[in-house]
């Protein structure tokens, strides 16, 4: 039987990693990614559709936006809007399975609370507990959301705050940063994946392996040796750290207040720990690359390094991610290595890329022609360094809030960013003059034409991607220009 010539595919997806922590930005120390970049292409303007795990991961696996796949927020919380994908939504893994690929899944799933990777064609090598919930399962509050409090592990009023700790009376203890070996069991996950890779060295069938780690998600707990690689004296607060956000939605300021107990030194230490966490993830990625090389599989494996969403990392005084629609929560890494196909490796692509582009890209890599449409577009031409006569000129985001709900949409070009906040006043930023998004221009009359054009783009995207946030009722229709703007010159 002739050997299958189709390439293997390996995906290494971290959790909550900023796009500027990998080459060519290099905010973090990443020796393995630095070497990897020399043989890969970095898509330096890659964005997720939503600023939290489940919607973005669902987009990664479906090639669709939340308005299409139906996952609007994290699926395993008590007040979730949806527990899983819309009926009839297909993942690219199912296409690979039908085409003869062997599929292996290690680590974080976080797409559905009603089904797991096995339901979508994967062999699970290192499962997460949430995989096994039955379809339609909604945990009773007494056994799920209330467990933190029933166990009594909560802060009490008057408790003395320790370094890096945030005191919230009646809430669980929270430490922003610290030292921990094997955070989130990411070393165990990676070692498990490596054992699976080693076991396949003599198996010539094409495979796809997804490795989902949980770092550098907060709290930022990292092994000491990686923390020691960063001199605290070199860590500076972001230029926009002192933005009081008086011209932005009130929820932005309230979110910042969550971190108001931290001193400037503690914010700097948080940055130090976050960057060290990125270095730790780079170390784990390097171990995977070494296993591929030792088994002779490296040169026949397409490798994708990415993340589900970013982290504010102290910008505007914020951490983690949430409704504040700043680019750092949406900007993610994306590097792709395809030996023998990538032309002029070691380069970066500046065009806007979405996590929705990964699904059609993987299918083209595997030689599969899908019989359905995607919101994303294959990135293979960029890997081959082929000239693109047309490409998207804007990036769009969709969120109905994390667990504090609020409808929010945004559209961003290279010059302008408009944010529609259904729960508060909108935002407009000139990204050329104000890349840190410090000055909200939404109330400046001279930019009214920009707002109009951005609204038109937003509603056109909504129309073509099945977004139904178009309720015309007077008490909830807050956009400065309504959806009908896109039909003004058309006969209805």
Could you characterize the architecture of this molecule?
By secondary structure, the chain is α/β, with parallel strands linked by helices. It has 2 domains: 8-383, Alkaline Phosphatase, subunit A (3-Layer(aba) Sandwich), CATH 3.40.720.10; 413-487, no CATH class. It has 12 helices and 19 strands. Helix 6 (186-199) packs parallel to helix 9 (264-294). It is globular.
Give the end-to-end Cα distance, rounded to a whole number of Å.
60 Å
Which runs of at least 5 residues are low in confidence (pLDDT < 50)? none
CATH-defined fold name of the largest domain: Alkaline Phosphatase, subunit A
* Helix coverage percent: 10-25%
Shape: globular
What's the β-strand tally? Answer: 19
Beta fraction of the residues? 15-25%
List keywords for this structure.
single chain, 492 residues, four-stranded antiparallel sheet, globular, 12 helices, alpha/beta, Alkaline Phosphatase, subunit A, 19 strands, 2 domains
Concise account of the structure shown:
The protein is built from twelve helices and 19 strands. With 492 residues, it is of the alpha/beta class. The N and C termini lie far apart (60 Å).
